[in-house]
Amino acid sequence: MVGASPDPSVVADTRCHTGEGPLWHPDEEVVYFVDIPEADLYRYDPATGSHERVLDAEGAVGGFTIQESGDLLLFCDEGRIQPWSPESGLGDPLVDSIEGEGESRFNDVIADPEGRVFCGTMPAPDGEPGTLYRLDTDGSLSVAVEDAQLSNGLGFTPDREGIYFTETEASRISRYRYDRATGELSDRETFLDASDLVGDPDGMTVDAQGCVWSAFWDGGRIARYDPDGTELERVEFPAKKVSAVTFGGPDYHTAYVTTALGPGEGPAGTREEEGSGAGALFAVDLGVAGVPEFRSRIEY
Asked: Is the pLDDT at 278 greater than 80, yes or no?
């Protein structure tokens, strides 16, 4: 690990129960992020330094993608998938529910280069593991990974031949071979075994140099790993539950990091317990650029 750690700053003090899923919207030049159990969608505008809650929905919103049109596609509780736009609000669900997910919810999602979406669900209250699904552009769903141990952050290798997949309860990040033509995943290998580290891997992104940045829930940090899984550096935050990281700004040189006051399924804690910045959105210059996220192209 080299270099001095950069200093993150709070840019939106939303005090989210479970802030998650930040994405830079290049059309609007804003960052969207969610508070999962509150089903709140926030928008932060770095040009003005202001933020607002743009959606207060029912249930939960576990993640979202940006459609080719600029609309957001929300992945919610019970397997519900629903579009939203600033102009027209919530649209009719594309998927009302998924069999077997009645007591669960989506947790993290990513669009692939072809406009499909990989979308993972939480374990059920009875202990049944979650599932990583693939939503194809025609709206059909299939299982990509069974028995997922708390689906979380995803990202693609620069050559588009691999996909990273985080399972928080297993405290690991896997790397699969990814077939861009079909969306099929195969040949899982462990990229990072974090079982001996403080905290568990949560959301993640891949930077312009092909390195993985992972947020650590109950670890108070994000950490950068080279493609062979070697830790290169880490950045500490005044929040124990660091949940996700993305790059944004016109040149993708600013990292935006969400944090949480409490676990996704339990009561929120306090800042005395969780850290002075718990629940806030942070910005930090990591000294490296990111790349634009792919957009979903789901028909509806």
From this structure: yes
| Distance of alpha carbon 124 from alpha carbon 104, whole angstroms | 5
Residues 229, 211 contacting (CB under 8 angstroms): no
Sign of the dihedral through C-alpha 142, 188, 166, 42: negative
Among residues 202, 226, 228, 251, the one annotated as catalytic is 202
pLDDT at 1: 44
The answer, as to whether pTM is greater than 0.85, is yes
Q: Worst-scoring range by mean pLDDT, 2-6, 92-96, 109-113, 118-122?
A: 2-6
Q: What is the mean pLDDT of the chain?
A: 96
DSSP state of 296: B
Q: Is 71 a catalytic residue?
A: no
Pairwise CA distance, residues 187 & 90, whole Å: 38
* Residue 47 to residue 38: CA distance in whole angstroms: 27
| Angle (CA) 160 165 171, round 5° | 150
